[in-house]
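@channel sequence for tomorrow's demo:
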Amino acid sequence: MELLRTPEAMREWADARRSEGARIGLVPTMGYLHEGHVSLVRIAKERGCGAVAATIFVNPTQFGPGEDYEKYPRDEARDLAMLSAAGTRAVYLPGVKDMYPDGHQTHVEVTGVSKGLCGAARPGHFRGVATVVAKLFLAAKPHVAVFGEKDCQQLAVIRAMTRDLDFGIEIVGAPIVREEDGLAMSSRNAYLKGDDRVAARCLSRGLNRAKALFDGGERDAGVLVAAAREEIVREPLAKLDYAEGRAPETLSPVSGRVDAITILVAAKVGPARLIDNITIRK
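structure tokens (generated this afternoon):
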């Protein structure tokens, strides 16, 4: 497994793999990996990518003032061991100055789908995401890039950017990987201790309650979203940010009778801001 620290090294590796006729898969991460990240590597391989590269970069431009950029968990040695065991061919680990050299003044902003939800709670977040992912795409030159569906709005932003800027990259959404008790795997779960860890189950519990109603015949979007919201509001250690119903393909708001809906939730539990979602269809 090759370790690449600069954009130039990443581009050279990508050019060499393409010259060999290899199909490149890219798995962008911010590190502190878990089984959900490892599943992305597997999915890239299943998509026919013989050369899978992962990236590890805690991107400062997607964190707002007072957020957890400095505290974000990091463990490079552990991450590299996990990626090596998964069969990753290369890992790109640029520094902040490599990604944003002095004088950097160009950003990528996706309007529309970045509005509301986490975009409302974290102004500038998706501009930072779109910019860094565009730079990773340009360095790694992948045929396929895999992102987790837990970050549902982020995935929609990246799909829109990839389409609108003609990157020609296949964007693959990977199913959410969960702990045994239903909590969606997240690097920020490391912040959860004791009662907070137990309380965090309220997000998935609310989504499962909405799914049970839908499976039982309920089709009113407002009733379904309210069911998810109530489970979170009832948890004294959780502070609800949002619970909303959106159209699965476009993330546009929905109301009234629905035959398909994505319910997205976000809440603060202890020091961790958690997000989760579920898509329900007939």
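heads up for whoever presents: The chain has a mean pLDDT of 98.
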